[in-house]
Specification:
Isopropylmalate Dehydrogenase, alpha/beta, Rossmann fold, 10-stranded mixed β-sheet, 324 residues, binds 3-isopropylmalic acid, 39% helix, binds magnesium ion
Length: 324
C-alpha cells in the first residue's frame, strides 16, 4: 500500500527541493499517496492563512509529512516560523529533532538529537511597556523533567544501537545553573539504565570548537532546542555544507515530519540553484520511518559521493535518481 504523505513545499527554494526529493523517492520504487498543502509565507500573503487546527487534525491521519522550507522576507519574523513550523512541532509533539551529519570524505558520522518542543522555543515571556523607553522583554527557557527525559532516553537508545555507543550531552551548565542542572541530572540518571553507553559532556561553546576541529570525537549528541538549532547549522557547515543537512522531526508514537535543515533561501529561489540533497536525504529519513529501510539505504548510497553532486537543482535530482 502507498504511504500517505502530506507535502508542504513552502516558500522560496522549498518547493524546488521537495520536487527533487519526490522524484528520487519515486526512482527508488516507493509509491507515495501525496496530499499537497499550500502553506507558508506566500499563502499567508494571499489570504492570511498560517495553519488552522482542522489541518493539524487531518495530519494526524497521515503516515508522514515532508516539508521544504517556510518563511518569506515580506512577512514579519516569527509569523510563519512560530505560527506554522513551531506550531506543527508543538501540536504534533514532534519532540525529537534528529539531524545526522557525515564528514565530506565519509570517514565518520555523528547525529545531533535536538529537543524540539521546549527551551526558549516554548514561547515563555513577553513585553512590558512595549515600545516605551522603559520597555522590558523576557523570553525564558522552559525545561520539564518529562520533556528532557524523553529526549535524553531517545538519544541513549540511539547511541546504544550504534557501534561506538557514545553519547555527549551539550549544554552550558556553568552558566545555566537551573536548566543545565535539570539536564545534567536527568542525563546522569538515565545513563544508569544504559551502562553499555559511554558518556561525555561538553559546554556548547567548546562544542563549537570541536565541531570544527575534531568532529570525529562525536557519535551521538543530545542538547536543548536552541543549542541544537545553532549547532546543527554548524554541523552542516563542517559536513559539506548546509545543502547536505537533513532532519527528522519525530514523534516516536505519532505522525512525524521530515525537512532539510536549511531555510527557504529567498535570494536563490526560483533559479534552479539550490542543492536538493538535504531534501533528498530527509526523504530517506522519512522512508526509514515508514519502514522502507532498503530504499532509504539505497538513496543514501546514491548521495554518498557528495563531491559529484554538483549542478542545478534539477540536474542533481536527476543524477541521484539515475543512480537508483
Ligand atoms: C531549523 C530552523 C527553525 C528553527 C526556524 C525556521 C524556526 O532554523 O529548523 O533549524 O529555529 O528551529
Ligand atoms: Mg535552524
Amino acid at each position: 500500500m502507498a504511504h500517505k504523505v502530506g507535502i508542504i513545499g513552502g516558500d522560496g527554494i522549498g518547493p524546488e527541493v521537495i520536487a527533487e526529493g519526490l522524484k528520487v523517492i519515486d526512482a527508488a520504487g516507493i509509491e507515495l499517496d501525496t496530499v499537497d498543502y499550500d502553506l507558508g509565507g506566500s499563502r499567508y500573503l494571499k489570504d492570511g492563512t498560517v495553519l488552522d487546527d482542522a489541518t493539524i487534525d487531518e495530519w494526524r491521519g497521515l503516515d508522514a509529512l515532508y516539508l521544504g522550507a517556510v518563511g518569506t522576507p515580506d512577512v514579519p519574523p516569527g509569523v510563519i516560523e512560530r505560527g506554522l513550523l513551531l506550531k506543527m512541532r508543538f501540536a504534533l509533539d514532534l519532540y525529537i529533532n534528529r539531524r545526522p551529519f557525515v564528514a565530506p570524505d565519509g570517514s565518520h558520522d555523528f547525529i545531533v538529537i535536538r529537543e524540539n518542543t521546549e527551551g526558549t522555543y516554548a514561547g515563555e515571556g513577553g513585553f512590558l511597556r512595549h515600545g516605551t523607553p522603559h520597555e522590558i522583554a523576557t523570553q525564558g527557557s522552559v525545561n520539564t523533567r518529562h520533556g528532557v527525559e524523553r529526549c535524553v532516553r531517545y538519544a541513549f537508545g540511539l547511541a546504544r544501537s550504534r557501534p561506538r555507543k557514545h553519547l555527549t550531552l551539550v549544554h552550558k551548565t556553568n552558566v545555566l545553573t537551573f536548566a543545565g542542572d535539570l539536564w545534567e541530572r536527568t542525563f546522569n540518571e538515565v545513563a544508569a539504565d544504559f551502562p553499555d553507553v559511554d558518556t561525555a559532556y561538553n559546554h556548547v561553546d567548546a562544542a563549537c570548537i570541536y565541531f570544527v576541529q575534531s568532529p570525529e570525537q562525536y557519535d551521538v549528541i543530545v542538547t536543548d532546542n536552541l543549542f541544537g538549532d545553532i549547532l546543527t547549522d554548524l554541523g552542516g557547515a563542517v559536513s559539506g555544507g548546509i545543502g547536505f543537512a537533513s532532519s527528522a522531526n519525530l514523534n516516536p508514537e505519532g505522525v512525524s515530519m521530515f525537512e532539510p535543515v536549511h531555510g527557504s533561501a529567498p535570494d536563490i529561489a526560483g533559479q534552479d540553484k539550490a542543492n536538493p540533497t538535504a531534501a533528498v536525504l530527509s526523504g530517506a529519513m522519512m522512508l526509514d520511518h515508514l519502514g522502507e529501510t532498503d530504499a532509504a539505504d539505497r538513496i543514501r548510497a546514491a548521495c554518498a559521493d557528495t563531491e559529484s553532486l554538483v549542478g542545478s537543482t534539477v540536474e542533481v535530482g536527476d543524477l541521484i535518481a539515475s543512480r537508483l
